[in-house]
Amino acid sequence: MSKIYIFESTGKAGLHAFAGDEAGSQLPERHGPWRTTGTVLPNHALPHRINRDVVEKAIEGEGFQLWRMKQS
């Protein structure tokens, strides 16, 4: 897979997403608006020890993968 783009929802606190395109065109609108927060290069680890293989499969199938930050 190529780059993975990281997004944060500005409408739902703590909700984040990974997407395969820079615009996040397939992210669910009901959880947006979305803003880009970063990019992960090919063969680099995702933040927070999230499994890259699982995320890549979700992006291939759905176009995105949602995730939440655990509250401390």
How would you explain this protein's 3D organization?
By secondary structure, the protein is of the alpha+beta class. The protein has one helix and four strands, in the order βββαβ. The protein has one helix spanning 52-62; strands at residues 4-9, 15-19, 34-40, 64-68. The chain has a four-stranded antiparallel beta sheet.
Report helical residue fraction.
10-25%
Categorize the overall geometry.
globular
- Counting DSSP E segments of at least 2 residues, the number of strands comes to 4
- What structural class should be given to the helix and strand makeup? alpha+beta
End-to-end separation: 32 Å
Sequence of secondary-structure elements = EEEHE
Q: How confident is the prediction overall: mean pLDDT? A: 94
Radius of gyration: 11 Å
Instruction: Give unreliable regions as ranges.
Output: none
Give me the side-by-side strand order of the main sheet.
Answer: 3-1-2-4
Number of domains: 1
User: Count of DSSP helices?
Assistant: 1
The share of residues in extended strands comes to: 25-35%
Summarize the main sheet: 4 strands, antiparallel
Provide the fold topology.
Elements: E1 4-9, E2 15-19, E3 34-40, H1 52-62, E4 64-68
Antiparallel strand pairs: 1-2, 1-3, 2-4
